[in-house]
TrEMBL record:
Transmembrane segments: 21-42, 62-83, 90-108, 120-137
Organism encoding this protein: Amycolatopsis iheyensis
Keywords from the named record: Membrane, Transmembrane, Transmembrane helix
Organism superkingdom: Bacteria
Protein name stated in the entry: DUF4383 domain-containing protein
Amino acid sequence: MTTLLADGTRLAAPEKWLARYVLALLALVQAGLGFGALFLPADPHADMAGMPGMAGMTHPAQPSFAGVSWNLALGAGLLVVALYPRLAGLWLPVYCGLTVVLGVASVSDLVRGLPVTGRIATHVLSVVGVALLLVVYRRRKPRAGREPRPAAALRRR
């Protein structure tokens, strides 16, 4: 009975699993950033330097829920792709777009001379996530019954 059930199955090569494991680890780190900002106490003496009109103001006791939700959503999306690699094609454009927005904001902050080294260090995780998403996307198995067509067949249409 077992041979009948496992006849057409085989384990994926370790190279395919490695990228998914690293992607899952990155997802947990990304979500950890969100949970950390949500549950750890904020420093009441932190200065919001560089924010227009915010000079001298301290960080509010309530955490920045935009950053929390951003990190939790990105972590959840990466974890879903690590578990279901066929969804990498759907999540890749969204994640690339969000990473481009982060990159533009980071370059803008750097050009203005704002102290953003900690934030840029967390944005590097997004760039690594894009690279891992590309690897998972390129290594996924095509769906059953859908054979990739050669490029010559596509040009004849």
